[in-house]
Design brief:
The protein is α+β, with helices and mostly antiparallel strands and 408 residues long. The chain folds into two domains: 183 residues, no CATH class; 181 residues, no CATH class. Helices cover 55% and strands 20% of the residues. The chain is built from 13 helices and eleven strands. Strand 7 and strand 8 form a beta hairpin. Helix 1 crosses helix 11.
């Protein structure tokens, strides 16, 4: 076997140009597979980060739409969700770990000579726990801050960058809607949400404080809110929890069976996981398309090997005449095909990694190269060599020694 390998490598070195052209198809194929898998895996990883940034096992409740003179005015116009609904969801449903009511509005924030327009969210003390949102500095909003309507605020990273580029914001005074607030903490980075919103461009204040100073009281009542974010306990079925929340709210709002919901409930984790699955399908599709070039490279190897068999017919006949068996000839040509594929595979890995880096750098696209993708691409290249090299090798091993020696 080792002797066959030496003969095969010597034969490949004789025609370097032909060998290089045969290898090139495999290099392009393996490189394309790795680059496409890297792009798709990067998209999957990005979606997974967005799922994590929203908060684990998250369900959101928002007001529904109101109908006026036969016209549906859109989501959020039916302001019937209250703080009492949030408290009932947390206390009455075993599957719920925590729930936080919230209100939000875009407000101009002022600090010294600097100002910045951002989204101000009035929240309950449980909000950070529901969103799995850590602090980078300071302390969270405490229950006593909510009960006492304290004028305190937590700043997101983007807000800090625009108002406090060179200063530690904790302990500083900012003005929201011309009302002074003390900064008690800085939120950890969350990044962009799946719908493109910068989650770090925000300010959190106690909901009670916001009702008194920033948002004002709605016509629907002093405890009306813009929505509820709900964290479900680990291990609980999200679909069942979503159904239980809907049933509880319909009961509290005294809706008849034939009436539509006056709110909507969304399982955000399911929505994002659907996007993750779509990204995974895209990865498979890209890899499958790129794999076509591997088959093209394999056909190139088959053509080269068939030409090689024809050119070396007399050599094959001579080897058989001095005692070589058919299996030796078969092994020799198979080794040549596999060597071409493996060399192409290794060079293709380098090309794929370089292409992935270039895509990430030039297109500013998140790329991720899984180690198993590299191993799979090289193994697939070797399999292509065996598959497309077997026919020429088999043809060579079945030559009649006498006819081969007579070949001109």
């Amino acid at each position: 076997m080792w002797q066959s390998a030496r003969i095969s490598l010597r034969a490949l070195r004789v025609n370097m140009l032909r060998t290089t052209l045969a290898v090139l198809g495999i290099v392009i194929g393996v490189g394309a597979v790795i680059a496409m898998v890297a792009v798709g895996s990067g998209a999957e990883a990005r979606v997974a980060e967005q799922i994590q940034s929203l908060g684990s096992n998250l369900i959101m409740v928002r007001p529904g739409s109101v109908v006026a003179s036969g016209v549906r005015l859109g989501a959020g116009t039916q302001l019937r969700i209250t703080e009492d609904d949030a408290e009932a969801i947390q206390s009455e449903l075993d599957a719920v770990e925590a729930a936080s009511a919230f209100r939000d509005r875009t407000v101009q924030i002022v600090y010294g000579a600097l100002n910045w327009a951002t989204r101000v969210n009035g929240v309950a003390a449980e909000y950070l726990d529901v969103r799995d949102w850590p602090l980078a500095a300071g302390r969270p909003i405490a229950p006593e801050d909510v009960r006492g309507a304290a004028r305190v605020a937590l700043l997101g990273q983007t807000t800090v960058e625009n108002l406090f580029p060179y200063t530690d914001p904790v302990g500083e005074i900012i003005r929201l809607a011309n009302v002074p607030f003390t900064v008690i903490g800085v939120l950890g980075p969350k990044g962009q949400s799946t719908w493109g919103q910068d989650q770090d461009d925000t300010v959190l204040i106690p909901l009670s404080t916001g009702n008194q100073t920033v948002f004002g009281t709605t016509r629907s009542g002093p405890r009306r809110i813009d929505g509820i974010v709900i964290k479900i306990r680990p291990g609980e079925d999200m679909t069942e929890a979503e159904s239980a929340i809907r049933d509880l709210l319909r009961q509290r709002h005294r809706l008849r069976p034939d009436q539509e919901d006056t709110f909507w409930v969304r399982n955000l984790s399911d929505v994002l996981r659907t996007q993750e699955e779509a990204s995974r399908v895209m990865t498979y599709l890209l890899a499958a398309i790129a794999s076509v070039s591997l088959f093209v490279g394999g056909i190139g190897i088959m053509n080269i090997m068939l030409v090689s068999v024809t050119e070396r017919t007399r050599e094959i006949g001579l080897r058989m005449a001095v005692g070589a068996r058919s299996r030796h000839i078969l092994a020799q040509f198979l080794v040549e095909a596999i060597t071409l594929s493996l060399v192409g595979g290794v060079l293709g890995v380098a090309a794929g990694l370089a292409a992935s880096w270039a895509i990430g750098y030039l297109a500013e696209w998140r790329v991720l190269v899984p180690p198993e993708a590299i191993a799979l691409a090289v193994a697939f290249a070797a399999a292509v060599g065996i598959f497309f090299g077997f026919y020429p090798a088999r043809k060579a091993s079945l030559l009649d020694p006498i006819e081969a020696l007579r070949y001109e």
